């Protein structure tokens, strides 16, 4: 009833089983290598995304602060157009590009101690150019050319305002990042 099974049949299965065991290790290593590569790529991507988000945040903070300073300077001109510190417009170099115009309070408006936003330099400044001579004559209430700059009515004034704020740059040793904003105002003083 019980017949013995030929041993040749068992030997054939045992041989193929041994060959299959040697294939599993390389397959598992390849899968682990692929998964490790995907994880490393995702970590790098998240680090880049974090740096981009930090840069965007810094840019928005600086832009908000410089726009606020620009409005302060415009308000100063509206309140006291003749008592505002102004510089002559540069012939070859714009006045806001001259470093000396930013360092002295006789040439710039310095809002020292004005805490705009956390991390922003607490001393934002403005350089205001008197650009009245850029107006095209005749500009007067009566349309008549008068004795002002280029024949412009002396009650008309034109100002070019440049505001600057800075923030310490963490990626540059001892460096700062600056944000500038500029506007022009035409004022009729009576």
Number of DSSP strands?
4
Largest sheet: 4 strands, antiparallel
Q: Helix and strand succession?
A: HHEEEE
Average pLDDT:
77
* Shape assignment: rod-shaped
User: How many alpha or pi helices?
Assistant: 2
Report the portion of residues in β strands. Answer: 15-25%
- Indicate the radius of gyration in whole angstroms: 36 Å
Instruction: For the record, give the distance between the C-alpha atoms at the N and C termini, rounded to a whole number.
Output: 128 Å
Helix fraction by DSSP (H/I, runs of at least 4): 40-55%
Structural class: alpha+beta
In spatial order, strands of the major sheet run 1-2-3-4
Residue ranges: pLDDT <50 for 5 or more in a row? none
The number of domains: 1
Features:
single chain, 190 residues, alpha+beta, four-stranded antiparallel sheet, 2 helices, 41% helix
């Amino acid at each position: 009833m019980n017949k013995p099974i030929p041993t040749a049949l068992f030997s054939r299965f045992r041989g193929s089983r041994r060959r299959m065991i040697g294939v599993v290790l390389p397959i598992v290593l390849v899968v682990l290598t692929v998964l490790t590569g995907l994880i490393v790529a995702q970590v790098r991507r998240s680090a880049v995304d974090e740096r981009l988000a930090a840069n965007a945040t810094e840019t928005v903070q600086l832009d908000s602060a410089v726009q606020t300073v620009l409005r302060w300077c415009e308000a100063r001109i509206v309140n006291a157009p003749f008592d505002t510190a102004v510089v002559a417009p540069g012939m070859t170099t714009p006045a806001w590009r001259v470093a000396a115009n930013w360092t002295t309070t006789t040439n710039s408006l310095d809002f020292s101690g004005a805490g705009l936003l956390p991390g922003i330099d607490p001393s934002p400044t403005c350089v205001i150019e008197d650009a009245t001579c850029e107006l095209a004559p005749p500009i007067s209430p009566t349309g008549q050319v008068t004795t002002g700059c280029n024949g412009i009515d002396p009650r008309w004034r034109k100002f070019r305002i440049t505001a600057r704020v800075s923030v310490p740059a963490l990626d540059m040793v001892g460096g700062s990042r600056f944000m500038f904003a500029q506007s022009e105002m035409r004022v009729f003083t009576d």
